Amino acid sequence: MEEQLQPSEQPTGFTPVKRPNLLTILCILTFIGSGLNFVSSLFIGAFLNQFVPVAQDIAERFKLPGLDMITEGKPVFFFLTALLYAVTVGGAILMWKLRKNGFHIYTIAQILQILAPMYFYHLPSPSFIDMIISGTFILLYATNLKLMT
Q1: Does a structural domain hold residue 8?
Q2: How many H-runs (helices) and E-runs (strands) does the chain carry?
Q3: Residue 69, CA distances (Å) to 10, 133, 141 in order
Q4: What is the pTM of this model?
Q5: What is the crossing angle of helices 48-62 and 21-46, to 10°?
Q6: Residue 13 zone, left/alpha/beta (φ > 0; ψ -120 to 50; rest)
Q7: Alpha-carbon distance 35 to 41, whole Å?
Q8: Is position 3 within any domain?
Q9: What is the C-alpha to C-alpha distance for residues 145 and 101, in angstroms, rounded to an integer?
Q10: Which of 97, 52, 96 is nearest to 74 (CA)?
Q11: CB environment 91-119: b (16+ within 10 A), e (fewer)
Q12: Is residue 73 part of a domain?
């Protein structure tokens, strides 16, 4: 039978690492943003044929640019982005637990999320806004790498 150590009985030299507030905030923002994007990408991919007329109507009524990525998209693109958002959340969960491999998983998923539209829509360059947001999060997460194992 395993013995549980009480906090006062922890081995000497053992100090639990507290998650910094910045890392906590970044993870929560990632859980919310990537979690919602996971759900929306999954639903758009599953119901794309029903969603395209609605998106076209919204684009025409409100003169919104950018909805053409939805109306011209294929389900495989949305399922891939849903998978990448799920991987992003997984990386954030690992970083929440102060695991360094979560940072690497998160970073790779973010890079692939930036490159995916270029591949599927034959775009000449990545989205500047996506690069700024992803780059900022990656840099801020990187500041916490020294605390992760």
Answers
A1: no
A2: 6, 0
A3: 55, 19, 29
A4: 0.83
A5: 110
A6: left
A7: 10
A8: no
A9: 10
A10: 52
A11: bbbbbbebeeebbebbbebbebbbeebee
A12: yes
Distance, in Å, from the CA atom of 8 to the CA atom of 132, rounded to the nearest integer, reads 46
pLDDT in tens, 66-123: 777 788 889 999 999 999 999 999 999 999 999 999 999 999 999 999 999 999 999 8
Supply 41's token pair.
Answer: 């990408």
81 is a domain residue: yes
Domain housing 39: 20-147
pLDDT in tens, 38-53: 999 999 999 999 988 8
Q: Cα separation of 10 and 8, whole Å?
A: 6
Q: State the Cα–Cα distance between residues 123 and 102, nearest whole angstrom.
A: 29
End-to-end Cα separation, the chain, in angstroms: 28
Neighbours of 13 (CB within 10 A): 5
Domains identified in the chain, total number: 1
Which range among 9-13, 14-18, 39-43, 51-55 shows the weakest confidence by mean pLDDT? 9-13
